[in-house]
Amino acid sequence: MTDGTVIVWYAAICGILGAVAPSLGGTMLRLGIGALVGVAAATLLPLVRVSLGL
Q1: What is the DSSP letter of 1?
Q2: Cβ–Cβ under 8 Å, residues 34 and 17
Q3: Which of 6, 12, 25, 53 fits as disulfide partner to 29, beta carbons 3.0 to 4.6 Å?
Q4: Does the pTM of the predicted model rise above 0.90?
Q5: How far apart are CA 42 and CA 50, in angstroms?
């Protein structure tokens, strides 16, 4: 079973990144930024879950 918190977390991160992506530059730069944002989101998720008591 998929945890809803994970889906909501990544949906929010991807939505924000998608909204600002066209203004970030070329394809390779956006790819690198997307990778960094993904790593940061995955790293921060456990902290967010603990702070929310999940």
Answers
A1: -
A2: yes
A3: 25
A4: no
A5: 14
